[in-house]
Design goal:
Number of strands: 5
Helix content: 40-55%
Order of helices and strands: HHHHHEEHHHHHHEEEH
Strand order of the largest sheet: 2-1-5-4-3
CATH class of the largest domain: Alpha Beta
Number of domains: 2
Structural class: alpha+beta
Radius of gyration: 20 Å
Shape: elongated
Strand content: 5-15%
CATH topology of the largest domain: Beta-Lactamase
Length: 250
């Protein structure tokens, strides 16, 4: 009633038997269901999957050198470039010191979903692991709506569903999340608890790529811990040069 649709037509829509649905009908449903912006976008894409398939394109495997230079210039704020499927495309030194160095992993494992669900160390790192896990799954669900023909994403979801019952449970809930900002609390093995403010920004020219930053409150214990961690990383670890795809070159 709120959307101005008959129960019979709405039932056909839920069953995927509604044919081509107009944007006006989709918008009315989104308003009636009180969907959040990310959920509304997801609904629009579900209503027109063939149109999205025609627009499908691959995510770039690497970031521009200038973006890596930007990350490296930000020495006291952990930062990452994250792509489709939660792939970690680039990072800075303090980000590696806080969250673990992706350069030490196989490229296929530089992925937040795999790290959160398949690496026991990350269960200890995130104070609220369940909330982080729900964020990761919600973002993957949003990616699936944006790119229904992405075979790599389908393979990732299948792998995680088989290897993690917790992932399978969260995936079955069909929740949509687009984490753009918030608070991330960590339990770091070297410097203790950290409280970081998360801010994410889409990279111009590619809707699938985002810059994620984790900054401390000025003058907070976390800020001092990050400075200490940066010093420890600089003095105790060898210098590693990376190419634009994050591979070790020395």
């Amino acid at each position: 009633m709120l959307a101005g649709l008959s129960p019979a037509y709405y039932t056909r829509l839920e069953q995927g038997d509604g044919g081509r649905v107009s944007d006006e009908v989709t918008a009315a449903l989104a308003r009636a269901l009180r969907l959040e912006p990310a959920e509304t976008e997801h609904l629009f894409r579900l209503m027109d999957p063939l149109g999205q398939v025609r627009r499908e394109r691959r995510t770039r495997a690497a970031v521009r050198p200038a973006l890596q230079g930007l990350l490296d210039a930000v020495v006291h704020v952990p930062a990452f470039i994250v792509g489709r499927r939660s792939d970690i495309l680039a990072w800075n030194a303090i980000g590696a010191a806080v969250f673990g160095d992706p350069a030490g992993r196989d490229p296929a494992d530089r992925n937040w979903a795999r790290l959160v669900f398949l690496d026991e160390g990350y269960r200890d790192l995130f104070v609220d692991w369940r909330e982080k896990a729900a964020d990761v799954v919600g973002q993957l669900r949003l990616d699936a709506g944006r790119h229904p023909a992405d075979r790599q994403l389908a393979a990732l979801v299948g792998e995680l569903s088989m290897r993690s019952s917790e992932f399978a449970t969260l995936w079955a809930q069909h929740d949509i999340r687009e984490r753009c900002h918030g608070i991330q609390r960590l339990r770091h093995p070297e410097v203790g608890e950290l409280e970081l403010r998360v801010e994410s920004f889409r990279v111009a020219g590619d809707e699938d790529v985002a810059l994620a930053t984790y900054h401390p409150e000025p003058g907070s214990p976390t800020q001092e811990s990050l400075r200490l961690l940066g010093t420890l990383a600089a003095t105790s670890r060898p210098v590693v040069e990376r190419d634009v795809e994050g591979r070790r070159t020395r």
